[in-house]
Design a protein that fits this description.
Blueprint (H helix, E strand, L loop, with lengths): L10 E2 L11 H53 L4 H37 L2 E2 L24 H23 L4 H10 L6 H16 L3 H24 L7 H9 L3 H41 L7 H7 L2 H9 L2 H10 L2 H14 L7 H17 L1
Parallel strand pairs: 1-2
Helix pairs in contact: 1-2, 3-5, 4-7, 5-6, 5-8, 6-8, 9-12, 10-11
Length: 369
């Protein structure tokens, strides 16, 4: 039997599964509409990347022109501190724009590759699918260790903490989108994680309104990252898609966003409570260590274990009452409680000699008995 390569081409169709208990035409229409929406979103993301690249090139061209003017003016005139500062600023801007340009070109290349891998269907089968041969080489994946992840997160937060906090305080969708457009490097897991840390700190400080505001922005970032993982693209290239969708979101999508936000706020409150309880325990342990007596016993714990008569003598600071209470006890029991009082610092003998004399008297009394 002769086989053809076309036998293995997968053509996506809305009518591949039928069920006698389902309204088939409605099912087909629903599938077709959902697929068209996915195709539109994918196309919009590509257009956004192309637009971002064009804007980046325009800004780079302007910055390079400004840099050229500054360098020429630098040759003609004597050195000026303001001119030098402006020159350094523009040089840094040019370096950043060149880096962003390469990043957008890479994301566009990945987007086009993803487009070529999409299955054919009744809406795109007449369109060009392949324009050149590509060798599919699986990239070597390198898993980061936990230590490397922590170092990466710490370095990122130290560098961009101020920018992340500013994003956390934004309230309008348009403001958030513009800020991420100006700072695309913030669209990453490190930003989402640090926003949650800020939320916990606010909750511990009982700044509940601020916690809820930053939690909202944390969910915004998380939705962008989740969308990027689903589509297997760089999150810096799809955050505009999220804002376009959330601003015109239908009820199920908005409900999903609100539900995730409430779950995050619950986890933040629980984590803050746990941290406060842990801090209280540490504080109590520190206080306990400070009040330990010479024998290493806690005076509070020892006091609570004493008989009522002994507790009353310490409450009233009555030495006579203390001696009478000890004399009423069994000699061994009395020595036990007295030793505990001394080791915890509740009872401080006048001197070591008094202590030795008391022990000698106890031994003599025992011999007489």
């Amino acid at each position: 039997m002769i086989g053809f390569v076309w036998d293995h081409v997968y053509v996506s169709d809305d009518e591949d599964v039928v069920c006698p208990y389902v309204d088939t035409p409605s099912l087909f229409r629903m599938r077709h509409r959902a697929r068209l929406e996915r195709m539109a979103e994918f196309q919009q993301r590509g257009e956004d990347l192309e637009s971002n690249l064009a804007e980046c090139k325009r800004l780079l061209e302007e910055a390079q022109g400004q840099l050229k003017e500054l360098e020429e003016g630098r040759k003609e005139k004597e050195e000026d501190e303001e001119r030098e500062a402006e020159l350094k600023k523009v040089q840094a801007q040019v370096r950043k724009l060149k880096k962003d340009e390469k990043s957008f070109e890479k994301m566009i290349k990945e987007h086009r590759w993803e487009e070529k891998k999409l299955p054919w269907n009744v809406d795109n089968i007449s369109k060009e699918g392949f324009s050149k041969s590509v060798v599919n080489v699986k990239p070597v994946s390198t898993e980061e260790t936990e230590e490397e992840k922590v170092e990466k997160h710490t370095a990122f937060v130290m560098k961009y903490a101020k920018e992340i906090k500013y994003f956390g305080m934004l309230r309008r969708w348009d403001d958030s989108q513009k800020y991420l457009s100006d700072n695309p490097h913030l669209v990453c897991d490190e930003t989402a994680n640090y926003l949650v840390v800020i939320c916990i700190d606010f909750e511990i400080d009982e700044k509940h309104a601020l916690m809820e505001q930053v939690a909202h922005q944390a969910i915004v970032m998380q939705f962008i990252l989740d969308s990027a993982r689903t589509l297997k693209v760089d999150p810096r290239g799809c955050f505009r898609q999220f804002f376009s969708k959330i601003k015109t979101a239908d009820k199920p999508y908005q409900d999903a966003f609100d539900r995730e936000l409430e779950l995050l706020k619950e986890r933040i409150r629980s984590c803050a409570q746990t941290r406060m309880e842990s801090a209280m325990k540490e504080l109590e342990e520190e206080e306990r260590q400070k009040r330990l007596g010479p024998g290493g016993l806690d005076p509070v714990e020892v006091y609570e274990s004493l008989p009522k008569d002994l507790q009353k003598s310490f409450d009233e600071k009555n030495i006579q009452m203390l001696q009478e209470a000890i004399n009423k006890l069994d000699p061994e029991e009395g020595k036990y409680y007295l030793r505990m009082c001394i080791d915890s610092g509740l009872w401080v003998p006048d001197s070591e000699e008094d202590k030795d004399d008391d022990e000698d008297e106890d031994e003599e009394d025992a011999e007489k008995d």
